[in-house]
């Protein structure tokens, strides 16, 4: 039997890249490639001194419909989420940025996006079709194990962002893109995740992208809104991270802002 970590023959062609991540040292860029819901891949690019990406390789995730990825803050592990097959893939990351596939782990239907804690020991996964969130333990060898899973507070959890300490995760609930979107907070502990308060509606439909201000005081949610114009909703956060009442959504001037379409300047 051939080594499952090795792709035999020509490298797969990346198709429909769906998300992007940069290594902590800023030298490597990776994309998750959805591949039209079929055999997913992850692509590795080396970044030149002027920031230009140079293609290195594209390898299989051993899952289908790869939608999201994240690199651990210590730079040792990369995780992809594979929506069609309902699992996540883990890779060890070498010093030169090369990826070596380690394993796949089922988390739930529609495994959509991973977020890795600042200590690089845990990851939270949104499972959009299962309507669950999963906490995984990451070993020193990049192996994954399930700690616990909980039901999401809103339909179709997709986007996720962690606060700077990694003690809270904020989740965007897509609700088919046509129903009222919402955001919810989840406490994160190595022993398990649990809900903090109730989900808060965004005032628009299909909430998918989510970002947190660096000072931890403001949360932003992008509303995909399949049947109308896109918008961004702003939420003030309490001193302990509780989600406050939203400000009215602001139109983006475009349609269907997606998962990776929202970022916050480091000064905010």
Tally of alpha and pi helices: 0
Q: Could you give the order of strands across the largest sheet?
A: 1-2-3-4
Q: Averaged pLDDT, please?
A: 91
What level of helicity do the residues show?
under 10%
Characterize the largest beta sheet: strand count, sense, and whether it forms a barrel: 4 strands, antiparallel
What best-fitting shape do the alpha-carbon axes yield?
globular
What order do the SSEs take from the amino end to the carboxyl end, as H and E? Answer: EEEEEEEEEEEEEEEEEEEE
Structural class assignment: mainly beta
Got a strand count? 20
What does this structure look like?
This protein is mostly beta strands and 268 residues long. Helix content is 0%, strand content 53%. It has no helices and 20 strands. The protein has strands spanning 17-22, 28-33, 39-47, 53-64, 66-71, 77-82, 87-93, 99-106, 111-116, 122-127, 132-138, 144-151, 157-162, 168-173, 180-189, 192-205, 207-212, 218-223, 231-236, 250-251. The strands form five sheets. Strands 1-2-3-4 form a four-stranded antiparallel beta sheet, with no helix packed on it. A four-stranded antiparallel beta sheet has the order 5-6-7-8, with no helix packed on it. It is globular.
């Amino acid at each position: 039997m051939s080594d499952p970590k090795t792709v035999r023959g020509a490298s797969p062609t990346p198709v429909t890249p769906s998300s992007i991540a940069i290594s902590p040292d800023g030298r490597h860029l990776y994309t998750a490639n959805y591949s039209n819901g079929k055999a997913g891949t992850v692509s590795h690019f080396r970044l030149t001194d002027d920031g230009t990406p140079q293609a290195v390789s594209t390898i299989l995730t051993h899952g289908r419909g790869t939608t999201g990825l994240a690199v651990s803050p210590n730079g040792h592990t990369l995780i992809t989420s594979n929506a069609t097959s309902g699992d996540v893939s883990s890779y060890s990351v070498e010093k030169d940025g090369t990826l070596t596939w380690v394993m796949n782990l089922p988390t739930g239907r529609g495994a959509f996006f991973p977020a890795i804690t600042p200590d690089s020991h845990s990851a939270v996964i949104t499972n959009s079709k299962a309507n669950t969130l999963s906490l995984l333990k990451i070993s020193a060898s990049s192996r994954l194990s399930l700690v616990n899973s909980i039901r999401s507070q809103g339909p179709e959890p997709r986007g996720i962002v962690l606060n700077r300490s990694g003690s809270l995760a904020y989740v965007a609930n897509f609700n088919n893109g046509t129903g009222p979107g919402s955001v919810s907070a989840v406490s994160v502990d190595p022993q398990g995740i649990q809900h903090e308060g109730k989900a808060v509606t965004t005032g628009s439909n299909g909430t998918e992208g989510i970002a947190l201000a660096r000072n931890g005081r403001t949360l932003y949610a992008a509303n995909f809104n399949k049947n109308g114009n896109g918008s961004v909703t702003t939420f003030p956060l309490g001193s302990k991270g509780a989600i406050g009442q939203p400000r009215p959504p602001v139109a983006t001037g475009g349609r269907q802002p997606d998962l990776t379409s929202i970022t916050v300047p480091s000064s905010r």
